[in-house]
Amino acid sequence: MAAIGIPRDEQAFLDYVQGGGQVEATDWLPDDYRAKLVKFIEMHGNSELMGVLPEREWILRAPTLQRKLALTAKVQDEVGHAQLIYRVVEDLGKPREQCLADLISGRSKFHNVFHYPTKTWGDVGVIAWLVDAAAIISQKALLKCSYAPYARIMKKICWEESFHILHGRDVILALVTGTPAQFELVQEALDRWWGPLMQFHGNPIPRDEDPMWLWRIKSQGNEEARQQFLDGYVPQIRELGLEIPDPKLRKRDDGTWEYSEPDWDELRHVVTGHGPKTEERLAFRRRFLEQEQWVRDAVLAA
Amino acid sequence: MSEHVWEVFRQERRGQPFEHAGSVVAPDADFAEAWAREQYGRRGESVALWLVPRDAIRDVEDWADEFDLKYRRVDGYSIKARLKEARELAAESAARSRGAFSAGESQ
Residue A18 and which of A4, A195, A201, A248 are 20 to 30 A apart at CA? Predict the structure, then answer.
């Protein structure tokens, strides 16, 4: 008998991953599992790649040299994450060129928060602090993903994200301890970003109906992730004297958070390619993919 | 030139084991090193890397155990039921011999 046998039929495989089992790139994987992995991980890779564009716009406008360097490092990290993640997708059978082609043609998706404009330096702080905080909650849950190669690269990603959050929090702290106008910059940015942040973890479908949970690609449900975000960050936002733009937001006696229903229509609309900045950012990616073709050609001709 | 997959193993501190970190795709060893340095060593998170062409890895996964070699491991022994039986037997036999003795005394 094999000491560690990965089941080779779909039901036994499902039982195996639901019991906490993990699999490797070389193991037999059910077709449906492979397809779900590709879809989920590819969207993650797309989000890392597209997620740098709103921040990139601020590298030249960063207020100090230190901030400029930190922001550049963050952008470099996020592109690095996209590289690692696309590699995992490639191993699952979808070539990187195909991922990029599907991204720029709008066939595949990326996270809602990267479809919005960054109006001020306050937005940059809110993104680095709160968008990254929301993202790290999802990513920490992926450390337990049933697909082990993905779980392993998540270790490095989480490690780097923790510096991004701190960098964002530092940007915010500098602004809220500055002039009243600077404080207002943060409040306005928070007002703009709160809606998309509350939509970020997705609609509260019961986790048992979520195929990503079923295959243990995700190890927590959408609502669990959102509650964890609120629990961790509402107190941190409020202690700075900032106001969260949701009059219904309160902690119930049982410890869970009550909040106004996020705008799920907006979420659907935005992630299907109709966000305020979707077209502009995809056009940017298209242009650079073309422009840099010679680099890929040169490497392969070496 | 065609590209190949290189598995990347990284060592976090001297003396520690090399752990599998991920992989890179590159046309040759020099490019593989460049990508791996960038992706797994840029922030000083590794003191050394091993790059291994995936084709060079021999994968060993099926562990034949026809002879049931569990006797060489702790988990090969399940003594709970047997121990219980032995203790009961010992208790019974002690009771029997006590019984026989006291019966003899009363005569």
Answer: A201
Q: For the segment A197-238, what is each residue's pLDDT rounded down to a tens digit?
A: 999 999 999 989 999 999 999 999 999 999 999 999 999 999
Tell me the three state secondary structure of residue A246: coil
Cβ of B39 and A152 within 8 Å?
no
B106: its two tokens: 């009363």
State both tokens at A97: 């060129």
Among B20, B28, B39, the residue with its CB nearest the CB of A152 is: B20
Q: Rounded to a whole number, what is the distance in Å from the CA of B50 to chain A's nearest CA? A: 16
The two tokens of residue A81 are 């994450």
CA diameter of chain B: 104
Beta carbon pairs, A and B, within 8 Å: 50
Which residue from A251, A252, A248 is spatially nearest to A260, judged by alpha carbons?
A248
C-alpha to C-alpha distance for A83 and A34, rounded to whole angstroms:
20
Q: Does the structure show a pLDDT above 80 at B105?
A: no
Minimal CA separation from B101 to chain A, in Å: 53
What gap in Å lies between CA A53 and CA A51, rounded to an integer?
A: 6
> Cα(A110)–Cα(A41) distance, rounded to whole angstroms?
11
